[in-house]
Design a protein that fits this description.
- This protein is mainly alpha-helical.
- It has a domain at 10-81: Arc Repressor Mutant, subunit A (Orthogonal Bundle), CATH 1.10.10.
- It is 58% helix and 7% strand.
- It has four helices and two strands.
- The chain has helices at residues 10-22, 25-32, 36-50, 66-91, and strands spanning 55-58, 61-64.
- It has a two-stranded antiparallel ribbon with strand order 1-2.
- The chain is globular.
Length: 107
């Protein structure tokens, strides 16, 4: 299945990462400061995009599918790289530190 990454909501990947880490929707919701139904909705949307169940209920939590286990390291690394890039940009104090400049809009 081809995924359109131009329209993929990156927040879905944050939810996926937290659910994979906690193996529990309620704890993941608490850690993300959102409700458990919001986590369930995000997982439903990601399932639709990826065409996989991703996690199944298991006891008091969830158990990842083989596809989820295969995707998780890549998702986690990508999120960490985005966080690192974001923190680097915040530490820069002047626009002259940026490697590029936006062109001025034409009148």
């Amino acid at each position: 299945m081809d995924v359109n990454f131009r329209t993929l909501d990156l927040n879905l990947l944050r939810v996926f990462d937290e659910v994979m880490s906690e193996r529990n929707l309620t704890r993941a919701a608490h850690n993300l400061s959102i409700t458990q139904p919001a986590v369930s909705n995000a997982l439903r949307r990601l399932r639709e995009v990826l065409g996989d169940e991703l996690v199944r209920r298991a006891g008091a939590g969830v158990e990842p599918t083989p596809r989820a286990l295969a995707l998780w390291p890549t998702v986690r690394e990508a999120l960490q790289q985005l966080q690192h890039t974001s923190s680097m940009r915040r530490s820069q104090t002047t626009p002259s530190c940026w490697p590029w400049r936006m062109p001025r809009p034409r009148s």
